[in-house]
Design goal:
single chain, alpha+beta, Aminopeptidase, 5 helices, transferase, 160 residues, seven-stranded mixed beta sheet
């Protein structure tokens, strides 16, 4: 088992986050790096959301966040039980893409979340088949298709 570490995103991480958001494989699903950086900056002190930098042997390579499903009034998660956490993530460092790290660190993070929360959910876009496959490998199950406030169709997935 790999020893992943998770630490809160800080202002010092913003240049790294910017580099990651500018990589081609991240831009596809997390467009508009300026908007994403602004959202991250605005939420850094928000107690409703946990934003983490994922590292392996001291090397940061991914971003992950989680929040209560009711914290941001997201319709795709409205039917989930109270206390459920929603999460999202991306691998920013190209050297870590395609090596199984996503599945492994998601499993490690979810294991910790499940100690205090009844369920963990994710909502990747329905055309993001790679991410859907990664969540399935991390033992998430398809729950239903749903539409976001912005009109995007997502695959709601849950880890029980």
């Amino acid at each position: 088992m790999r020893n992943y570490t998770f630490r809160p995103v800080t202002e010092a991480d913003l240049p790294l986050m910017r580099r990651w958001l500018d990589t081609a494989h991240v831009k596809v699903w997390w467009p508009d790096a300026d908007k994403q950086i602004t959202l991250i900056e605005n939420d850094m002190d928000n107690p409703k959301i946990n934003m983490q930098v994922v590292s392996l042997i001291g090397q940061p390579f991914a971003y992950l966040y989680d929040h209560d499903v009711r914290a941001f009034n997201l319709p795709q998660f409205a039917d989930l039980p109270h206390g459920t956490r929603a999460m999202g993530t991306f691998v920013g460092d190209n050297d870590f893409v395609g090596q199984g790290h996503s599945v492994a660190y998601i499993e490690a993070y979810v294991r910790n979340l499940r100690v205090k929360h009844p369920m963990v959910a994710a909502g990747p876009g329905t055309t993001d088949t790679r991410t859907i496959t990664i969540y399935r490998q991390a033992r998430f199950m398809n729950r239903r298709l749903a539409t976001t406030r912005e009109g995007r169709l997502v695959q709601v997935m849950t880890h029980l």
